[in-house]
TrEMBL record:
GO terms for molecular function: DNA-binding transcription factor activity; transcription cis-regulatory region binding. Residues 21-81 form the HTH tetR-type domain. This is HTH tetR-type domain-containing protein. InterPro entries: Homeodomain-like_sf, HTH-type_TetR-like_transc_reg, HTH_TetR, Tet_transcr_reg_TetR-rel_C_sf. Coiled coil: none annotated. It holds the Pfam family TetR_N. Keywords: DNA-binding. The keyword Acetylation does not apply. Residues 44-63 bind DNA. Transmembrane segments: none annotated.
């Protein structure tokens, strides 16, 4: 038979479709690992196929070209980024707590997904690099805007003092991206994962206590 029943009692995909999905996933995993380790131009289709233990032709069947698989990897990783921050924006917590949790979640995402960090460090270009840049920049802007709205909520409810939420969100995302990029370096400026996480913890403390302190300052200044 070409189809089976899944554990939930419903019809499963035909065997051929399941095999194609496994091949596609193996190719994406292989490409992501290689593209996290070196620039796009240095990754060959042969390398991807070998790492996935499939034929070179499978890359073309599933993605059309190396550019196609590069964009598919970017889209998959961008979806992960949304998942990390969506979990941090827990409606049962206060806006300032969500700001703190989102900072931790985003930095953890960057450390867990070095290919995304490499994308951020790549200059926009034509072809695949340009298409990947579009995927990454669009997702980053959406996440930054959501983060900005939490800062605004914290200000409006009195948890944080009067700050420019847009500029603060840009600054923090830029800082997190920069720290994560240092983990890709191989010189004296490099940070290992543990140091990057320590930077995050210090930054989180400074940001949260700083925002709360501006509230106290504003209250004190308004007192008779």
């Amino acid at each position: 038979m070409n189809a089976t029943t899944n554990t939930g009692g419903g019809p499963a995909l035909p065997r051929g479709a399941r095999r194609r999905m496994r091949t596609r996933t193996a190719l994406l995993d292989a490409a992501e690992g290689l593209m996290a380790a070196k620039p796009h131009d240095a990754v060959r289709i042969d390398d991807i196929a070998e790492a996935a233990d499939v034929s070179v032709g499978s890359v073309y069947v599933h993605f059309g070209s190396k550019d196609g698989i590069a964009v598919a990897v970017a889209e998959r990783v961008a979806e992960r980024a949304t998942g990390y921050l969506t979990a941090a924006f827990d409606a049962s917590t206060s806006p300032l707590e969500q700001v703190a949790a989102a900072g931790t979640a985003y930095m953890q995402f960057l450390l867990d997904n070095p290919v995304f960090v490499r994308y951020l460090a790549t200059e926009p270009a034509d072809g695949a690099a340009g298409a990947v840049e579009q995927v990454v920049s669009t997702r980053i802007e959406a996440l930054r805007a959501a983060f900005q709205s939490r800062i605004e909520d914290a200000v409006h409810c009195g948890e944080a003092g009067p700050v420019d939420a847009r500029l603060l969100a840009h600054f923090l995302f830029g800082a997190w991206n920069g720290v994560a990029a240092l983990t890709l370096r191989r010189d004296a400026a490099a940070l290992d994962r543990a140091d990057a996480q320590a930077c995050l913890q210090q930054a989180r403390h400074i940001v949260v206590t700083g925002l709360a302190a501006t509230t106290r300052t504003a209250t004190d200044e308004g007192s008779p």
